[in-house]
């Protein structure tokens, strides 16, 4: 007993309950929230079936079995020995199944005439008719382009294909884009420029063969946990691990070299690395001469980036830049993978290109254990950008600006070329157009821009300015809660379809249960709307299978060739990497093995990269950098994961990561201020972040949204927002902003058992969440 | 050390808590997670440590020894079971005697619960849920030979020092080659001559 | 230890024999048809006493045994919280609230078995020992009187409700036990949690025994009322065998929890006493409460008895133990991947 707890005198406490007694923290309570209270969980062996499928979340696309009971309901998960993940799953994947029969599910269309009204549940007929009439009214009054469509990259590829076709054929609008614009497009742009093909060059399994692995701007341990096994597998065999990240993440902690550079300085760093490679004559001159164009220009440019200059820009020692150059170029087989950390910038494409330049200059392309890849964030981040829901693209990775491509697609779709709209604008630009009244109506499918887009104030204004807004979702997202019509659609486990993972491997998701009464597939809803708009003949799809058949045909002969991929083959093989031009073709897991790219000349087109300052300037008021990112327990806008008890228990709320040098204590309320707004988070004081940088995870909505703070500056080529760096300052605050409950249909409350810890004001123990001994208060 | 057992390597752990969620899916205690995941270096780094029951062998599991109700049984293959539900009186002796900090207790139910090496799964030849899903191999289930086949040259230790006492366990931890002969420090603070804890 | 246990057990058995002898008024009220049952109870007494002595001789149990009974017989405790003990007995041993926290269905089923068995034991043990007698002044009813140790306690009419209940008490007990035990048996075949590590002799035999006893008991009534005693002798034999087996099994299997469970009251009372005085022990590192101070002291003494020479480690909470171990691993074994 400690001194201060000695009772004063022989007083007896007035009332001591008989029960319960005392137990130390972490030993009582089992974190049994689990989404479903423990006493309602049954492990009865009533006969269950295991449905093989994949996870709905990130771009790794781990295989899993869903456990289905005799009543046909999904009730659990069982690891599956799929060769992507070899039975491993992350906490999101394990809890994913709880979405399927979650009490927060939407089970009837919601509708209201104006945003001042409450939602009411209506019939499908009424909701579809109203939506179609609003589309017609807005398009007749303001033109076809006044109605926009925003898709998502967590949809099956069939549905992403349908989003693009629906926009161009049924809505006849140029304004279609998708949330992969917030995710993948910088890498896509760089890939297209350099290689003429937009996908990772090597499969995950090549990582196991490499001698040196460079991970740039990817918190693999938290965002792609299951991919970590490939990193560790490489290290078990002696590979060197280099991590470039402003934070000391779980993989950076044990890396051989951790480059903790300042956010927004990536291309300066990689240019300097290439500078050293050139200076020390570590380039693969023969490879460059045989397979590339533009090397002289690149070499001249990197000459302007000696390590000393970049060391100053990046805030890392010059010696470390030299070390990285020597290790990467001298290892033998080297490989670089990157993710949002270098892509979410106003120079995102340049950053990716500077990594490509390094790989190409050292000859590390298209070999087992040597190459380059980007790790897609969303489940279908790869497949979602291939088949025409992007503003400038048509199915099969075709360009909407290319006359030949336009003609081919019009032929497949059976429309006149004059009817096919021109290229549209990007997602963020569309929000600006909504603000200006250029886009008056919007349908959103599988996205939640109120949490995911930068500069929340602008986003809210844009959406509020629309005259009509419909949203498809299975939970009422923050964005859907602001709409006029919400269509309740299926989860991934209630429909079949394909997704392409970060390796561009197409995998098949299987239907595990019937959707709840009142819920329809996105495919059905789009087809119904098309029918009401007078294009039923172009949308006569019974389901995903029929859409996939059309998609296969539409992609035939293109770079993104799916023609040889069928549902049957996917089920037999466990996944096929495109391009796969015919049904005998084994797929293409590794690109450029023959040294040929997909440009007409077969060469790698190296691009000159010049670093510039981030778009949000630093000054005396905003001297520090704010960077945003993910935490392992949550996914993107959190509409799915913020409702799953186990994940809420693990990480109930956002925080701000602060270096101890700022004088804050753990849990202190800290106001993060940028030119766009401010929000108060509890401080997680840690030495694992640069002193000049703060980090806030972005999965939560306003008023605890990181995207209240971020800047809506875009990369001029990829139009990706600069999420990963903006100027900020921090202040001591009085109280911490509370996380709001996730929205639910009228008359419901967010499933209370899952929300117990949400109002906790403490930061997690570590960025990965609260230690299991941290109990709810 | 048992034949097939769990090997723990905190150096590979990314602290993602997949094991914590997976444990909850195990049919023998569905909805309740027995595994502990601690961030052992808070404020300095994101280092983490998963803790499953170490299934002590020598001395015979301290939890079973201190149990006043003879509720903790040990199977022939060395698995220290969780408390027998009919016997456990919820006194928490095991909770506080365990040198590894493993057992949990449900005070209302007067019942101790802890990791039992997924007896329901291992009996069918499956790996325990935590080691099955662990994305990094920080928790590995198999024999030492299987571990070494996957990770060439890896060494393990299955004895832990708590002060002067050595506890050897059924579950082992990965250690560098030069530390195989040592018992792994159990963390019990050494008390200096002046009586101040050295942590 | 075995010698002491044998001695204690022998003494208890002898006491029981004496109690039977005198309670049945020098065997005057003893029903010789029930001899096998009576002999079984003597064996039961021996077994329970033996097992109990062995049990409470182990360090963990011995210390808690002393503390528990100490708290129970403490006059000070009684003055301070006179209702604590009866409340605990009622909630833990009678209504078994803690089982409700495990599962509502299991609580309900256990309550059925519990009250059924209590009822059955309350009727059959005294009957077997010849402590109860039911006599009719008129020779064959309807007026009966119930006597304990020869003293009249109750007179009733066999056609009244009380009379019916007196006559059919064991049938009522069987009706309570059968659904309860059947539920547990069903659960043992369906629930993977229950099936994990399940052993036939330990987990299933007791349930089967209870069901066999109850069903044969009910069939005896059925036989005497509807079948005019058809099959009665066989059923009676089967019933007797199952009862005798169960009684002898009690000290060695799952049923021993009936004897052990009251220790929970002792333990709770011991902790409750300390909590009343605010004697809470806090973790030496993080200062969160671990348990009551006398409890931690008791545990450390137990650990020393057992030669677990890291007893002071109990003064740290489990979380700190893990954190300190993790930290020691980081600083002394390896910091990172290699």
From TrEMBL, chain A:
One of its GO terms (cellular component) is membrane. Residues 48-104 form the 4Fe-4S Mo/W bis-MGD-type domain. The keyword Membrane does not apply. CDD domains: MopB_CT_Fdh-Nap-like (cd00508). Keywords: 4Fe-4S, Iron, Iron-sulfur, Metal-binding. GO terms for biological process: respiratory electron transport chain. SMART domains: Molybdop_Fe4S4. It comes from the Bacteria. GO terms for molecular function: 4 iron, 4 sulfur cluster binding; metal ion binding; molybdopterin cofactor binding; NADH dehydrogenase activity. Residues 1-29, 379-400, 739-777 are annotated as: Disordered. PANTHER family: NADH-QUINONE OXIDOREDUCTASE SUBUNIT G, RESPIRATORY NITRATE REDUCTASE. This is Assimilatory nitrate reductase catalytic subunit. It comes from Streptomyces finlayi.
Automatic annotation (TrEMBL), chain B:
Keywords: 4Fe-4S, Iron, Iron-sulfur, Metal-binding. GO terms for molecular function: 4 iron, 4 sulfur cluster binding; metal ion binding. Residues 4-34, 79-108 form the 4Fe-4S ferredoxin-type domain. It holds the Pfam family Fer4_2. This is Formate dehydrogenase. It comes from Streptomyces finlayi.
UniProtKB/TrEMBL annotation, chain C:
The keyword Transmembrane applies. The chain crosses the membrane at residues 35-54, 112-132, 161-186, 207-228, 234-252. InterPro entries: NarG-like_sf (IPR036197). This is Uncharacterized protein. Keywords: Membrane, Transmembrane, Transmembrane helix.
């Amino acid at each position: 007993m400690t001194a201060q707890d000695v009772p004063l005198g022989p007083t007896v406490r007035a009332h001591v309950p008989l029960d319960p007694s005392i137990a130390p923290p972490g030993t009582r309570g089992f974190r049994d929230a689990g989404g479903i209270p423990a006493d309602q969980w049954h492990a009865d062996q009533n006969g269950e079936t295991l449905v093989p499928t994949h996870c709905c979340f990130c771009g790794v696309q781990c295989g899993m079995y869903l456990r289905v009971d005799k009543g046909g309901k999904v009730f659990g998960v069982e690891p599956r020995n799929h060769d992507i993940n070899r039975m491993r799953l992350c906490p999101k994947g394990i809890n994913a199944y709880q979405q399927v029969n979650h009490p927060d599910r939407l089970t009837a269309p919601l509708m209201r005439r104006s945003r001042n009204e409450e939602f009411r549940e209506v019939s499908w007929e009424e909701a579809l008719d109203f939506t179609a009439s609003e589309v017609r009214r807005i398009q007749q009054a303001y033109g076809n382009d006044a109605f926009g469509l925003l898709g998502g990259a967590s949809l099956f590829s069939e549905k992403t294909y349908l989003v693009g076709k629906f926009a161009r054929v049924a809505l006849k609008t140029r304004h279609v884009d998708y949330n992969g614009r917030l995710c993948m497009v910088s890498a896509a742009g760089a890939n297209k420029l350099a290689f003429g093909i937009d996908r990772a060059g090597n499969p995950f399994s090549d990582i196991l063969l490499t001698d040196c692995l460079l991970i740039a701007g990817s918190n693999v341990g938290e965002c792609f946990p299951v991919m970590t096994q490939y990193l560790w597998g490489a290290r078990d065999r002696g590979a060197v691990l280099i991590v470039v990240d402003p934070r000391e993440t779980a993989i950076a902690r044990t890396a051989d070299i951790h480059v903790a550079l300042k956010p927004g300085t990536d291309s300066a760093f990689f240019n300097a690395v290439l500078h050293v490679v050139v200076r020390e004559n570590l380039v693969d001159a023969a490879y460059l001469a045989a397979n590339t164009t533009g090397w002289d220009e690149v070499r001249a440019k990197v000459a302007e980036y000696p390590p000393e200059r970049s060391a100053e820009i990046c805030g890392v020692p010059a010696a470390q830049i030299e070390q990285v150059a020597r290790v990467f170029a001298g290892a033998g087989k080297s490989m670089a993978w990157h993710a949002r950390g270098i892509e979410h910038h106003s120079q995102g494409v340049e950053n990716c290109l500077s990594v490509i330049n390094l790989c190409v200059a050292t000859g590390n392309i298209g070999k087992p254990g040597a190459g380059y890849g980007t790790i897609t964030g969303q489940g279908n981040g790869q497949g979602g950008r291939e088949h025409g829901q992007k503003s400038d693209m048509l199915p099969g990775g075709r360009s909407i600006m290319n006359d030949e491509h336009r003609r081919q697609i019009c032929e497949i779709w059976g429309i006149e070329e004059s009817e096919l709209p021109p290229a549209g604008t990007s997602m963020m630009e569309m929000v600006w157009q909504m603000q200006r009244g250029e886009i008056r109506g919007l349908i959103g499918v599988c996205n939640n821009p109120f949490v995911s887009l930068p500069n929340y104030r602008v986003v809210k204004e844009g959406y509020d300015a629309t005259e009509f807004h419909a949203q498809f979702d299975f939970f009422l997202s923050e964005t859907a809660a602001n709409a006029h019509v919400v269509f309740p659609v299926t989860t991934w486990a209630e429909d079949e379809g394909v997704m392409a993972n970060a390796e561009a491997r197409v995998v098949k998701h299987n239907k595990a249960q019937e959707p709840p009464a009142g819920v329809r597939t996105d495919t059905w809803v789009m087809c119904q709307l098309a029918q009401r708009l007078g294009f039923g003949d172009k949308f006569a799809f019974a389901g995903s299978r029929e859409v996939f058949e059309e998609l296969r045909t539409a992609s035939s002969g293109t770079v993104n060739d799916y023609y040889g991929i069928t549902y049957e083959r996917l089920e037999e093989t466990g996944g096929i990497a495109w391009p796969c031009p015919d049904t005998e073709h084994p797929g293409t897991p590794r690109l450029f093995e023959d040294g040929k790219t997909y440009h007409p000349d077969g060469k790698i087109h190296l691009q000159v990269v010049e670093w510039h300052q981030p778009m949000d300037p630093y000054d005396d008021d905003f001297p520090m950098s704010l960077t945003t990112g993910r935490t392992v327990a949550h996914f993107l806008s959190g509409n799915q994961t913020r409702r799953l008890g186990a994940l809420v228990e693990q990480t109930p709320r956002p925080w701000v990561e602060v270096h101890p040098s700022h004088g804050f204590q753990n849990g202190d309320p800290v106001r993060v201020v940028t030119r766009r707004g401010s929000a108060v988070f509890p401080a997680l004081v840690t030495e694992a972040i640069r002193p000049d940088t703060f980090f806030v995870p972005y999965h939560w909505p306003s008023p605890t949204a990181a995207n209240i703070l971020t800047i809506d500056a875009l990369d001029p080529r990829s139009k990706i927002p600069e999420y990963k760096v903006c100027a900020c300052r921090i202040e001591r605050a009085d109280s911490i902003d509370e996380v709001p409950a996730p929205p639910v249909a009228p008359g419901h409350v967010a499933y209370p058992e899952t929300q117990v810890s949400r109002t906790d004001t403490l930061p997690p123990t570590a960025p990965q969440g609260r230690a299991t001994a941290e109990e709810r208060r | 050390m048992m034949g097939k057992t769990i090997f723990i390597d905190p150096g590979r752990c990314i602290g993602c808590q997949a094991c914590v969620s997976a444990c909850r899916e195990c049919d023998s205690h569905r909805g309740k997670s027995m595994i502990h995941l601690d961030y052992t270096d808070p404020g300095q780094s994101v280092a983490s440590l998963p803790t499953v029951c170490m299934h002590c062998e020598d001395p015979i599991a301290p939890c079973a020894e201190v149990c006043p109700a003879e509720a903790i049984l040990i199977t022939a293959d060395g698995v220290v079971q969780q408390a027998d539900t009919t016997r456990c009186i919820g006194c928490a002796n095991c909770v506080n005697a365990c040198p590894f900090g493993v057992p949990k207790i449900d005070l209302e139910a007067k019942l101790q619960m802890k990791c039992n090496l997924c007896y329901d799964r291992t009996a069918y030849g499956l790996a325990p849920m935590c080691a099955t899903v662990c994305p990094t191999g920080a928790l590995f289930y198999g024999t030492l030979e299987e571990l070494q086949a996957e990770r060439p040259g890896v060494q393990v230790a299955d004895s832990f020092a708590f002060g002067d006492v050595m506890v050897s366990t059924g579950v082992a931890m990965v250690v560098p080659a030069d530390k195989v002969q040592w018992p792994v420090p159990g963390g019990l603070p050494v008390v200096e001559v002046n009586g101040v804890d050295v942590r | 230890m075995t010698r002491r246990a044998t001695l204690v057990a022998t003494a208890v058995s002898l006491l029981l024999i004496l109690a039977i002898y005198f309670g049945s008024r020098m065997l005057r009220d003893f029903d010789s048809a029930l001899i096998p049952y009576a002999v079984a109870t003597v064996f039961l007494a021996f077994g329970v006493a033996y097992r109990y002595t062995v049990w409470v001789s182990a360090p963990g149990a011995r210390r808690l045994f002393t503390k528990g009974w100490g708290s129970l017989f403490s006059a000070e405790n009684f003055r301070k919280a006179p209702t604590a003990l009866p409340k605990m007995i009622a909630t833990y041993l009678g209504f078994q609230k803690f089982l409700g926290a495990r599962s509502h269905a299991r609580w309900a089923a256990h309550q059925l078995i519990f009250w059924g068995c209590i009822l059955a034991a309350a009727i059959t043990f005294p009957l077997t020992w010849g402590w109860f007698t039911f006599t009719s002044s008129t020779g064959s009813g309807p007026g009966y009187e119930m006597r304990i140790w020869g003293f009249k306690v109750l007179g009733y009419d066999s056609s009244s409700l009380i009379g019916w209940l007196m006559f059919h008490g064991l049938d009522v007990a069987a009706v309570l036990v059968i659904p309860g035990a059947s539920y547990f048996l069903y659960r043992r075949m369906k629930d993977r949690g229950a099936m994990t590590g399940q052993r036939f002799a330990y987990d299933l035999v007791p349930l089967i025994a209870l069901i066999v006893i109850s069903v044969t008991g009910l069939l005896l009534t059925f036989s005497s009322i509807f079948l005019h005693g058809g099959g009665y002798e066989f059923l009676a034999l089967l019933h007797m065998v199952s009862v005798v087996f169960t009684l002898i099994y009690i000290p060695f299997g799952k049923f021993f929890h009936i004897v052990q469970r009251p220790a929970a009251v002792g333990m709770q009372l011991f902790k409750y006493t300390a909590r009343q005085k605010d004697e809470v022990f806090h973790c030496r590192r993080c200062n969160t409460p671990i348990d009551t101070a006398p409890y931690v002291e008791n545990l450390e003494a137990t650990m020393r008895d057992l030669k677990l020479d890291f007893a002071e480690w109990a003064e740290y909470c489990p979380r700190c133990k893990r954190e300190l171990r993790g930290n020691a691993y980081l600083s002394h074994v390896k910091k990172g991947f290699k």
